[in-house]
Design goal:
Strand content: 15-25%
Shape: globular
CATH topology: Metallo-beta-lactamase, Chain A
Order of helices and strands: HEHEEEEHEHEEEEEEHEHE
Low-confidence stretches: 18-27, 29-33
Helix content: 10-25%
Number of helices: 6
Mean pLDDT: 89
Bound molecules: zinc ion
CATH superfamily: Ribonuclease Z/Hydroxyacylglutathione hydrolase-like
Number of strands: 14
Structural class: alpha/beta
Distance between the termini: 53 Å
Radius of gyration: 20 Å
Strand order of the largest sheet: 1-14-13-12-11-10-9-8
CATH architecture: 4-Layer Sandwich
């Protein structure tokens, strides 16, 4: 009798306590089931604030480096447009090595030096095995980023995943044509870009496996924008609100 009790106690302990003993999740908070897959997909995507992501894996890829706190060496830097909070020469310098390739539009390229590949919407390039497509990125209901500037977002493949970084954009019709996006990094702050509510509609158009809010907490927007974005996509698209690293 006592032995049975002990065995039951051990089973109860394993069932109840073991999950608590597992290492705590370091990354953001998946909103619904499939949490393990989401955690795996997102583990190499680090948010450094605003539109700056450090994506590791085959290569070290930075997007729109701004307010870089730690010195690092990027293999590839993707810059969406020439505004100071995206195209920042002093921040590029902090992560630029002799072999770093910068992909950007012509007006940002003028501010930088090194190995630069200039792109416009529609261009497709391959850098050391990383396929990169420049896609349109512009405002539709404000004038900060007009279409004629030729600024871009990027869809790039890393570790078998297609990642989309939108840049400073509103919800634009081209988004419906983006296919098989695994992770979409979307601005949510409003003012210069789409609001959280507009970003919800954009995410539905794009239909990624995971959507990650960005462009808040630095220049404009705050955590509440990210939370409204997550709330609006509940039951439709998995949202991961990353912690700033
Ligand atoms: Zn901008």
């Amino acid at each position: 009798m006592k032995r049975i009790f002990v065995r039951a106690a051990i089973i109860a302990f394993v069932l109840l306590a073991a999950p608590v003993l597992l290492p705590a999740e370091k990354k953001g908070t998946p909103q619904k089931s499939g949490a393990k897959e989401v955690t795996t997909m997102i583990k190499d995507i680090h948010w450094l604030g605003h539109d700056t992501f450090r994506i590791t894996g085959e290569k070290v890829i930075f997007t729109d480096p701004f307010k870089i706190k730690r010195k690092d060496t990027a293999d590839i830097i993707l810059i969406t447009h020439e505004h100071y909070d995206h195209c920042s020469p002093e921040d590029v310098k902090k992560i630029q090595g002799p072999d770093t390739v910068i992909v950007t539009v012509s007006d940002c390229a003028k501010k930088l030096s090194g190995n630069i590949k200039i792109v416009k919407p529609g261009d497709k390039i391959n850098i050391d095995g990383i396929g990169i497509e420049a896609v349109p990125s512009y405002n539709t209901n404000k004038q900060f980023h007009t279409k004629d500037r030729g600024w871009v977002g990027y869809i790039f493949s890393v570790g078998g995943q297609r990642i989309y970084i939108a840049g400073d954009t509103d919800r634009i019709p081209e988004m419906k044509a983006f296919k098989n996006i695994d992770v979409a990094l979307l601005p949510v702050s409003g003012t210069y870009v789409m609001t959280a509510e507009e970003a919800v509609q954009a995410a539905v158009d794009i239909n990624p496996k995971i959507a990650v809010p960005m462009h808040y907490g630095s220049i404009v927007g705050n955590k509440n924008d990210a939370e409204r974005f997550a709330e609006g996509l509940k039951g439709k698209i998995e949202v991961v609100v990353l912690n700033e690293e």
